[in-house]
Amino acid sequence: MSGPLHGLRVLDLSSVVVGPVCTGVLAEQGAEVIKLESPEGDLLRRLGGKGRTPGMAGKFLNFNRGKRSLCLDLKHPRAKAVLRRVAQRCDILVTNIRPDAQKRLGVDAAALAELAPRLIHCSITGFRTDGPYAGKPAYDTVIQGVSGIAGCFEASTGEPRYVPMLIADHVCGLIAAQQIGFALYRRERTGRGESLEIPMFENMAAFVLQEHLGAMSFRPALGIPGDQRVLSPEARPLRTADGFIALSANTDAQAHAFFRAIGRPELASDPRFATVAERTKHTKEYFAIRATALCGRTSAEWLAIFAEHDVPAMPYNTIESLLTDPHLRATNMVREEEHPTEGPTWAIGAPNILSGGMAPPLPPAPRLGADGRAVLAEAGLAAEEIEELARDGALNETGGTTA
């Protein structure tokens, strides 16, 4: 079987998380992904935590499965021309390099459109290039702060905080893959490529406003912004006698079933809790009841009770316990794997299913520069030319980076 993107070639000029999330999705769907790296390697090779060998941090392994590594020193006068030759034979280019730097390297959308008119050029930026923030550097936490995500924590707890994962990078990487899919569909009809601009700020600000603008959607405003159910400090896993469970009871049927399950059926007729509208008005009181209702039984007991009452509830997982979650193991989402140079590792599988066919499981993430000679040969460079690039230092084949 092969994935829907089988036969497409992607040049990945991105690093750290947002771009690799995007190209990782494309690889999962069968595309060939060529990851261009500098001699220092993707920052995530070093920033991604502890590894067994330099340049192969665990986080890098997880974001770069199924990719081929080409290591060029773009400061070398010949390397830029080589890069453009590789780009010329690709279907998709993904980059989070700032626009000015793209132009200096000759890999901006306008320059490549002349060489490869069918190329889909996807530039992931911090901010749209037609606004006053254009060109400013951006990382996930910067975007979380400026887009209002950290402000949601302040509205909830009184203190601005970041989501403790790179949520803006993940979301915008997925959006970039989605938009590439749209552009590929249009290319099928027109035969022409196009340039895409995926701004992180605008995308995440849109999510925050869609979720929390609420009563301020109207002019004049009908009330304060914010979905109080989501912003409540008590919107958290519920404590049981031996841990926590994750529960949600939003509809009237679910809330009333929850009241029966905890032995408080009379709450279903309490005017404050009888309907969705009233529970929304009395979120604080409703969540206070939920917060203390489960302390008398174990998590396993409550999960059985809620299943019997058809109340949505699931076990609470930590990062460690996800690795042994029976559903994730059964669906092959997490499995043990032997990396050719790093030894035993956990492998994270593709979460989605397409009935028309799926790409085979992705191979492990590559060592730095591991595929350089093969990639350049496929781009039409002669063996003597490749050897000369390696000898001159334009092509790096060290296979590792400094710690």
Number of helices: 19
- Based on secondary structure, the structural category is alpha/beta
Write the CATH architecture name of the largest domain.
3-Layer(aba) Sandwich
How many beta strands in the DSSP annotation?
Answer: 11
What report would you give on this structure?
This protein has 403 residues and is α/β, with parallel strands linked by helices. The chain has 2 domains: 9-206 and 327-392, 3-Layer(aba) Sandwich (Rossmann fold); 238-315, 2-Layer Sandwich (formyl-coa transferase, domain 3), CATH 3.30.1540.10. Helix content is 41%, strand content 13%. It has helices at 18-28, 44-47, 58-63, 79-88, 99-105, 109-115, 140-146, 149-157, 167-190, 200-212, 228-231, 252-261, 276-281, 283-292, 299-308, 319-322, 326-330, 372-378, 383-392; strands at 9-13, 32-37, 67-71, 92-95, 120-125, 194-199, 238-239, 244-247, 313-315, 334-339, 343-348. It has a 6-stranded parallel β-sheet with strand order 3-2-1-4-5-6, sandwiched between helices. A 3-stranded antiparallel β-sheet has the order 7-8-9. The protein starts with 8 loop residues before the first strand and ends in an 11-residue tail after the last helix. The mean pLDDT is 96.
Compact description:
The protein has 19 helices and eleven strands. It has 403 residues and is of the alpha/beta class. The chain folds into two domains: 264 residues, Rossmann fold (3-Layer(aba) Sandwich); 78 residues, 2-Layer Sandwich (formyl-coa transferase, domain 3), CATH 3.30.1540.
